[in-house]
Specification:
The chain has about 475 residues and is an all-alpha fold. About 70% of the residues lie in helices and about 0% in strands. It contains 18 helices and no strands. It starts with 14 loop residues before the first helix and ends in a 17-residue tail after the last helix. Belongs to the major facilitator superfamily. Sugar transporter (TC 2.A.1.1) family.
Length: about 475
């Protein structure tokens, strides 16, 4: 309530809160930018370093493997050293490996640098989510976390567009280096900006550092006119913040009876979702080129190779744009319809999109092309409306503060096992069993994702992080209900 008696559902966002949100959104942008631009760069990389199908798969999987390790190792460190130090460190790593990639002289170093980029992006999965959700009002948490996450889709479109623009301007094999170079200066700017944010008061309070937590809240809530005038923090119901169960704040606490259900909900559907999203996202240009007959296994010249890549990039840009449309719907609906409903509905929609694309093999000409594009467009829209957005959101909400970094990091890493496997196997399986069989397999995966989500559902929509700290004692299938802040 303001001094004049005006009542609001929650306090307006401050400049510091918006700064934190913007810098977190930038991290998600770089993830989409690098991972999806790799799809455009792959044919050029393959030609320059003269690599085969297996090495091709390793390149596609390298950054995803880095995300897997970074999410568990570096993301988990945010529970020990704090959200802000890891929020800064991940961008320092990103900039260093990005520069190394641009000047990479050979294939082994290429894999190492791509892995390093993934390491930084993996740390960002839990850290960016936590630093937003622990600093903003609960009533807008879904919108703002997913709003930042939406920049992954913006980055995906941007990466594909930059790839196309660079290829069109500089039609030569080395064009891939300029693609990655375009991200260096923006990444440095974001790195500098992250030094100026405040530490998470939730994390400080969970460690018993009440005075530092109060100071962090004061910096977080600076506004004109100042409200509240005085800030005093206390624990809820006389208990410490950040209950992690009988195992305390160790990795094993993720699997105790208090947190096991949350771990399954956060990890398994995300794993199933990544099987499809990353494989299709990285290899969309390749799949479209093959399916539309625009690609050849043995291009007759460099000119043919680049022409094929440009055409595939155009098709990828069209289908990828619907990732943005999907995430915009997710932002609008997450705090009203709810996370679980959107995730289940999204998984079913992904299966429908993949089924449409699979029907293309039964037709020819314009009908086949229409089915392929319609299927990919529907898949991209539904995955960002549902599982791609909601799995990320839920993973940062269902765990207590003391192990939130570990929980969200483990979920992201477990998901990336599916992404790495898919990225490595896709180019091999495309040749071995064909596009249609691959799509059928992913349809089954999407349906399974909907089933697991429903069986282990925990609804966090509108529930404050303080309320989520309390052990629920819920059994599988029961929704979590609590009053909104």
């Amino acid at each position: 309530m303001w001094a004049d008696g005006t009542q609001l559902p929650s306090a307006p966002m401050t400049g510091m809160q918006w700064l934190i949100w913007s810098l977190a959104a930038a991290g998600k942008f770089f993830e989409g930018f690098v991972v999806f631009m790799t799809g455009v760069a792959l044919p050029l990389l393959s030609n320059e370093f003269n690599i085969g199908a297996a090495e091709h798969g390793i390149i596609g999987a390298a950054s995803l493997a880095g995300i897997l390790v970074g999410a568990v190792w570096l993301g988990g460190l945010s529970d020990r050293f704090g959200r802000k130090p890891m929020f800064v460190a991940e961008m320092v790593l990103f900039c260093a490996f990005l520069v190394g990639l641009v000047f990479c002289p050979n294939y082994p170093l290429l894999v190492i640098f791509l892995f390093g980029l993934g390491l930084a992006l993996g740390c960002d999965y839990p850290t960016a989510h936590m630093i937003i959700s622990e600093s903003i009002p609960s009533t807008a948490r879904g919108k703002l976390v997913l709003g930042a996450f939406a920049f992954q889709a913006v980055g995906a479109l941007g990466g594909t567009a930059v790839g196309y623009a660079v290829l069109s301007t500089l039609p030569e094999i080395s064009a891939w280096r300029w693609m990655y170079a375009t991200a260096i200066i923006p990444a440095v700017i974001v790195t500098v900006g992250r030094f100026y944010i405040v530490e998470s008061a939730n994390w400080l309070a969970a460690r018993g550092e009440t005075k530092r937590a109060e100071e962090a809240v004061r910096r977080l809530l600076i506004r004109k006119p100042q409200y509240p005038a005085e800030i005093k923090l206390s624990t809820r119901d006389g208990q410490s913040i950040g209950h992690a169960g009988e195992d305390g704040g160790t990795w094993m606490s993720l699997f105790n009876k208090t947190n096991r259900r949350a771990t399954i909900l956060a990890s398994v559907p995300w794993f199933l979702q990544d099987l499809g999203t990353y494989g299709i996202g990285i290899f969309t240009p390749t799949i479209l080129a093959v399916a539309l007959g625009a690609n050849s296994d043995h291009p007759r010249s460099i000119v043919d190779l680049i022409a094929n890549d440009i055409m595939a990039a155009k098709g990828a840009a069209l289908t990828t744009s619907f990732l943005i449309v999907g995430i915009l719907f997710a932002v609008a609906l997450a705090d009203t319809v709810g996370r679980i409903a959107l995730q289940v509905f999204g998984f079913i929609g992904c299966a429908a999109g993949l089924f449409l694309a699979s029907l293309a093999s039964s037709f020819s000409g314009g009908t086949s092309t229409l089915l392929i594009f319609a299927g990919f467009i529907l898949f991209n829209f539904m995955t960002n409306l549902g599982p791609n957005a909601q799995t990320y959101l839920l993973a940062g909400e269902v765990f207590p503060t003391a192990i939130r970094g570990k929980g969200a990091g483990f979920a992201a890493a477990f998901a990336k096992i599916g992404a790495v496997a898919t990225a490595f196997l896709f180019p091999i399986l495309l040749v071995a069993i064909g596009t249609t069989a691959l799509l059928y397999g992913l349809i089954v995966v999407s349906i399974l994702g909907a089933i697991v989500t429903w069986l282990f559902r925990i609804e966090t929509t509108g529930v404050s992080l303080d309320q989520l700290e309390k052990p629920t004692g819920l059994t599988a299938g029961q929704p979590m209900l609590a009053p909104a802040e």
